Structure formats: C-alpha cells, structure tokens
Amino acid sequence: MSSTHLPSTVGLRVVAALAQYGTVSSAADALHLTQSAVSKQLKNIEALVGAPLFDRTSQGLSPTDVGMIYIEQARIALGALETAAVRVAALRRSQPAIRLHVLPILGDRWFMPRFSRFAELHPEIEVEFTTFAASDTVEEADAVFRFGDGNWPGWRADYFLGREVILIGAPQLIARGGGISSLDDIRHYPVLEHRQTPLRWSDFAQATHLNEFVPARINRFGYYSLVIRAAIGGQGLALVPRSLIHDELASGQLINPLGLGFTSPNCYWLTTPANRPLGAGLATLREWLLQEARQSEPMEVALLQETAS
Amino acid sequence: MSSTHLPSTVGLRVVAALAQYGTVSSAADALHLTQSAVSKQLKNIEALVGAPLFDRTSQGLSPTDVGMIYIEQARIALGALETAAVRVAALRRSQPAIRLHVLPILGDRWFMPRFSRFAELHPEIEVEFTTFAASDTVEEADAVFRFGDGNWPGWRADYFLGREVILIGAPQLIARGGGISSLDDIRHYPVLEHRQTPLRWSDFAQATHLNEFVPARINRFGYYSLVIRAAIGGQGLALVPRSLIHDELASGQLINPLGLGFTSPNCYWLTTPANRPLGAGLATLREWLLQEARQSEPMEVALLQETAS
DNA sequence: TCAACGATAGTCCGAAATGGAATAGCTACT
DNA sequence: AGTAGCTATTCCATTTCGGACTATCGTTGA
C-alpha cells in the first residue's frame, strides 16, 4: 500500500539467489539467466528499495544491513508462492505426489545432479520439491531433509550423508600462509563458519586434540554454498562435509591438508513423519536416496574406523 | 523450484484485490488499473496455476477452492514485500515514522478518504501503513486497528467505531421478498455473514428478542467489503457497522428497515502497545483518529439510548 | 610492472509483456 | 425486448526484459 511500484518476482528470485550464491555470475547460472540480466534486475530492485542491498567486493557480493532485511522477506514471499504451487498441485492431483523438502545446499550440490536418474528409473512416481518453504509448511511434506543429530520427535530419521567433515582450504591460501605441515599450523589461518552450525570448529579441535584453538579470524556465512565459495576464493579454512565438495577436491580447487577431519554427530538426515505410514512410492524414493547417498560416500567406512582409533 | 514461471507481483496484487472486492471492475479501481488489465492479469495467473481461481458469476467473482489457497499465499507474499518496505524504511529513517496497521475494510471505507486531511494538518508527522502484514509483523507497529471486544493483553485499546451495528439490505431485495413491516419478516430473507464475526446474527436475535431465528440461507464472506457488496447486489440481509455504509444509506442503495440494529461489544478499536510510551506524533495521530471517528458517528449516542430502552 | 583472469556495470537491440480504449458477450432484472 | 452491470477479447502503443557484447575495475601471478 505504501509504494506504488512492486518489485518483480524474478527480481526477488535474483535477490534470493544472490544471497545464496554470493556472486552475480553464479546466481545467473542457477537461475538460467545471463550475468547481465541478473545485474540489471538487482539494479532495479535496489533503485526501488532506494538503498543498495549488497556491498560489491572484487570477490562478489555480500548483503548490507538493508539487504539482510530484504532478503529475508524476499524468501518469505517466494516461499509463499512455492507453497501455493505445491498446495494447488496437491489439491488437483487425484493421486498425490510425494512432497519432498530439500535444503538448498543439498539441492545444489547433491540432489539436482542426481535426481534425473530417479525420474528415469521411476517415471510413475511424481515428486514435488520445496526449498524456500517456511517451517510450518515443512510439516506438510512427506519427507524432509534436515541437518542435525537425527533426533526430531515425531519423525523417523535415516542417516543421509555429511557425517564425515573435513578440513579444507584453497591451495593458494595454504601456500601463502606457509603451508600446513602439522596440526598446529592451522592456527595461523582465518576460518570460515556456517552460521547455523557454529560448533563445528570446537568439535574439530576436540576431535583432533587441538588445544585452545582460537582462530586468527572468523568469517560467518548463512549458507554452506557461501562457505564453500569463500573457501575456494581463499578466504579461509573451512570444515565441510566431504560429500558436498567431491568435485572441488578432485579438480584441486580445494585440498584437505594432512587428511584432517572428524566424524560429526550433526549431519544430514532424511526424515519422514513417524506416525504416517510410508506409501509405496515414498518407500521407493527413500530407498533410492539412501542408497545413492551411500554410494557417494564410499570412503566413509574407512574413515570412521580411522577416526575411531 | 517446481514451476519455471513465476507469477508477476501485480498479478498477485490483482488476485488479492479481487478476493477483497469481488469484482474485476472495483478491484481495478482500487489498483488504479483498467478492468481490462485486471481481467488479463487474472487470466495470466490462472493459466500459470493451471486452474481457475474464481468462479465467474454475473454478479462478480467468488474464489474457488484452488483460489482460496492461492489467495492466502498471495497475501503472505505481498505481506512480506510490504514488511520489507516498512522495515527498510524504518532502518533508513533517522526519525522513525509512525507505523500504523489498518484493516482492509477500514482502509477502504474510512481511512483513505479522510487521511489526506491529517497529512495536510500535520505534514511533519510521517505515517506508514501496513495492510497485508502477518500477525507477527503487526506486533512491530506503533498503532494497530483491531476488531474485537477491546481486550488485548499488553495493548491499550480505545474505542474507534463500529459499535452501532444495523440491519441493512438492498431495497429491491426487500421489495421482492414482500417488504419488512415487522421484525418477524426478516425470517424470509437470506442473510450474509462475515466469516470472522459469525456471532453477529445470534447477537442481533438476542438483542431484538427475535426468537429461534434460523435464516433461510446464509452466505459467508471473508471480507466486509464483500458482505457490503453482496448486500448492495441484493443477495441478502446483512448486519454491518453503520459507520461503514453512510454513503450507501444516503444514496438509497441500502436501507435499514425499521431502523433495526443493536450495539455490539465487538467493534473496531485503535490499539497501542501498553508498555511503550506514546511519542508526540503518535499521540497527535491518535487524538485526531479518535476525534474523526466520533464525528463520523454522530447518531450514536441517540441510538445507544434507544437500544438500551 | 604488466598481462591475465574474474568479477560487475553499461549499451544496443529484438522479443515479449503490459496496460488502455473500444468492443463483444453474457446474465439478471424490469 | 431492453437495460444495466458484469467479464472477456481484440488491437495497438508503450514499456520492460533478457541476451550478446563491451567497458572497467581489482586481484593474482610471472
């Protein structure tokens, strides 16, 4: 009612994607747009808001105070549209589809590349995804990916992936800092942290007997994709589930100095409502997901033993 | 993530306005668009959703099941954008504006026509409105219009208007049904009801000693504007705060048979947080609002006495 | 210091969406 | 029938949007 001009929905999606990916180019990729288009959309929205939403750095974008507020509300708006679509679809379908809520990081790094295989294998099973959905809408889903220790009252949780957390950094960063030849060397490096899982570093210090670890600097990010991006950009060391960065490790963009890592109790789980019996389609999907996850973590058993010793 | 195409924001606003006003034409007026544009926007959204959102009647539009769902989410999305705007504005402004949350019906029928006078009188006081905002966002407002009995813990409530509820109907409807020459005649007519205030009719029956009142038919609406519109359209009798329909009574579009009505404990209140002290601007605004409301209800004292007798 | 790289911003242009005016069609009521 | 009050549709001018391309800036590495 206040402003006569409303932002465009693609603008909102651009803002959300920028917050998630941290650069115009990668956000553009994710949205199937060009860098130019995303840049212009951002410019439009900022003109409409009347203030910059992101600080421009040479590495990419980071949200301003105003941006934080706007991003949050943009997500809510997009989430509403998403749940509208899902609910309408559910209402119209005689045979309901499976509603699966995926976390952004899993969606980008694990799910989307693989899911087409499932769709080919089981074309008869319809699956709908939500990503932005608010917590109360998540309750409606038939299966929900969650991050945590596997204990959610009312939900059955199966371990999915991400138990194996490793220390990573960009090779340039590590070279610049003098290299990591012993555990203590990591004290010299800045570290990156995911805002929602702040205990990672203390867990790591405890698991590796690294006493009184006080990082040189801590940068916090709201998304794992940003942590990974920042790590690739050489902004610091990070603790990341190995499964999420197979590609970067293989290509050498990131390295795992000394093979350091630990097994975290906090990881990704596939959860299903405990009171609701699993339908046939959901059972198939669940089996497939869990098996695919096991295959994508081939080293885990070895490492579990190693860390346990 | 599911649909590649997002609805446009004006489309969302169109849907919300259609739900509120019930006809394409009046929604178009409210949005400062033409009927043609609104019709096309609706068509676009429906094509995108894949199902009609409204049933077309010769009287206007009424939401379908799918429509209800979509409307709800559209409101949430618009509300998010609104709160984004308000919060950003609050953040940027050194001297904060007064944030006032108005109910749709009051905004349309009472507030907007009058508020420009206040803006002229006190140009130094900035006021921001919210309409769509969700309940948790309402808590941030400096003043909130509410409907109820004046009892909200933590809020100071001043009576605003709407205590005087009268029976109204379109003259054609009443003529068609044989006229209303005694209280009992209203049993023959269909009645209109506001979804959120379902007790009106039983309160009315009790206040007027109309025993065992079972309406011929009940039509329920989600907005008071729809109730009023339906009453004007001759769809039934309604119980409506007199202050909201002065114009229609004066023009003869609606009549108040036998002067029937009652004083309801549920009405509109202007509420302010009890713990927060009123700033000077807010105090001025509050005084002005309450005084204007008193002036727009000149007959009330007389009627109060009448009904009490 | 210079060149390469990767980042964002800006310009030009064709395509698509949008909104307004006018028109056509429909239904209910007199 | 005829009218009033709706919505839907068509035509058209205008605006917006997105992609290709180019400019520019900062960082990295030889």
UniProtKB/TrEMBL annotation, chains A, B:
Protein origin, superkingdom: Bacteria
A Pfam short name: HTH_1
InterPro entries referenced in this protein's UniProt entry, alphabetically: LysR-type_TF_proteobact-type (IPR058163), LysR_HTH_N (IPR000847), LysR_subst-bd (IPR005119), WH-like_DNA-bd_sf (IPR036388), WH_DNA-bd_sf (IPR036390)
Keywords annotated in UniProt: DNA-binding, Transcription, Transcription regulation
Positions of the HTH lysR-type domain: 12-64
Gene Ontology terms describing biological process: DNA-templated transcription
One function term, GO molecular function aspect: DNA-binding transcription factor activity
Record-stated family: Belongs to the LysR transcriptional regulatory family.
PANTHER family attached to this UniProt entry: GLYCINE CLEAVAGE SYSTEM TRANSCRIPTIONAL ACTIVATOR, HTH-TYPE TRANSCRIPTIONAL REGULATOR
Protein name: LysR family transcriptional regulator
Protein source organism: Microvirga vignae
